Amino acid sequence: MDHNELWQQVLAQMQFHISKANFATWFQNTEIILREDEKMVISVPNAFSKEWLKNKYYKLILKTIHTTDNSIKELEFVIKPQLLKKIDQKEDTKKPEIETGQLKFEEFKVNKETNLNPRYTFENFVVGSFNELAYSASLAISENVGTVYNPLFIYGGVGLGKTHLIQAIGNKIHDSPKKKKVKYISCEKFVSSIVSGIRNHNIDIFKASLSLIDVLIIDDIQFLAGKDKTQEEFFHTFNSLYEKNKQIILSSDRPPNAIPELEERLRSRFEGGMITDISLPDYETRLAILKTKLQEKNLKLPEDVLEYVASNVKKNIRELEGALNSLLIYYKTNTSIPNLETTKRLLKNFVFSPFNVANYKKIIEIVSKFYNLDEKTIFNPTRRKEIVRPRQIAMFLLREELKYSFPAIARKFGGKDHTTVIYAHKKILQECQQNNKLTEELNMIKQKVYSG
């Protein structure tokens, strides 16, 4: 297998582990350029991408490469600026696909004007009880831009279809005869553009470009948390567009009232429109999604195989697609359709994934991230409310999910008196019975814990 084929397989698998926005932002214009014994050298377009891939995705990339070639022990990222191509500088909707026999994994089909991927449409979005309201609101907006549900705020866990849905809105509006100007941007990209604009003293140019937009779509808006200057700039951008009846569409992994360190004036703006969630798909919808994906690839698998996958791969839609691709790669490699026994063997890591098991480290990590705290901070013996509450929630989850004893939890938190832990557990339990917001936050945290 040559370098290019290996990297295309890695890219195909990476799409099932990270959000589409992050994938498009950090993995575009990357490739393997050299192998030196046990080291693989990967080119990236700029220093920003190099640092991000090295710090955020190193282990995941290496693990993905190991599924094909476990002799690679080290990765190195080198900067190789992309030269402008002379061929077809029009909209990038005809780019080549990553092809493996009968299987085709779509690469980067991003419209350069809108940043939208044209394959995200309402037609190939599978609707079920878990996303019906979000779908209906999205469809209504695409037909009545800026006049209903403004802003639209869609939240839900990783890999449940938020990016697909908000980009489907953008694609339908962009393709309509009214020729509205649409711009999709990940929140991370938005933040980096603001920071770059401030540093280079040209932020007015970036803000001016946004003022001309009819529909602004920002993915993963929770990344605004704690970034005061960016929140200020976004607040002014939001107001400017809103006052002109321009449509604003936002996605997040949690509702506005659960985003830590979000300015109250922004929270108020977000809550002034339509807030809707996407939850976990039920069995019937998971089965429908599998059949839809197969139909797109013009392939078939036995019904009992599809039923097994739908029954056992429950974490999210992205993992469902990953399981399906594992079967299709086997299909291509062995030129035979996998039966039920083969399917069980191939999907062992999906069905019995260690990520599906809660542990102490994951609970502390997820709770800390959810409330925008450093992991060490949660152990500080302080009475500050913004730290006390996450600490109590961590204690509560250690008791509820891992069945730790109260003294054992106390030891984890620096030898506190176990009566402090009993009080924390009782307090959170009582508040859950009276506070729907806290119950919702706990459910989202648990979903993140069990989904890795």
Name its key features.
452 residues, alpha/beta, GMP Synthetase, Chain A, domain 3, Rossmann fold, Helicase, Ruva Protein, domain 3, five-stranded parallel β-sheet, 10 strands, 51% helix, 11% strand
Quick summary:
The chain has 452 residues and is of the alpha/beta class.
Layout of helices and strands, plus pairs?
Layout: H1 3-14, H2 20-26, E1 31-36, E2 39-44, H3 47-56, H4 58-66, E3 74-79, E4 98-100, E5 103-105, H5 132-143, E6 152-156, H6 162-175, E7 182-186, H7 187-199, H8 203-211, E8 215-219, H9 228-243, E9 247-252, H10 264-270, E10 274-278, H11 283-297, H12 303-312, H13 317-334, H14 340-346, H15 348-351, H16 360-370, H17 385-402, H18 406-412, H19 418-434, H20 436-450
Parallel strand pairs: 2-3, 6-9, 6-10, 7-8, 8-9
Antiparallel strand pairs: 1-2, 4-5
Helix pairs in contact: 1-4, 5-6, 7-8, 11-12, 11-13, 16-17, 16-20, 17-19, 18-19, 19-20
Q: In words, what does this structure look like?
A:
One of its GO terms (molecular function) is ATP binding. This protein has helices at 3-14, 20-26, 47-56, 58-66, 132-143, 162-175, 187-199, 203-211, 228-243, 264-270, 283-297, 303-312, 317-334, 340-346, 348-351, 360-370, 385-402, 406-412, 418-434, 436-450; strands at 31-36, 39-44, 74-79, 98-100, 103-105, 152-156, 182-186, 215-219, 247-252, 274-278. It has 452 residues and is α/β, with parallel strands linked by helices. It folds into 4 domains: 3-98, GMP Synthetase, Chain A, domain 3; 132-278, 3-Layer(aba) Sandwich (Rossmann fold), CATH 3.40.50; 283-355, Helicase, Ruva Protein, domain 3, CATH 1.10.8; 357-450, Chromosomal Replication Initiator Protein Dnaa, Chain: A (Orthogonal Bundle), CATH 1.10.1750. The strands form 3 sheets. A 5-stranded parallel β-sheet has the order 7-8-9-6-10, with helices on both faces. The chain starts with a helix and ends with a helix. Mean pLDDT is 84; it is low at 82-103.
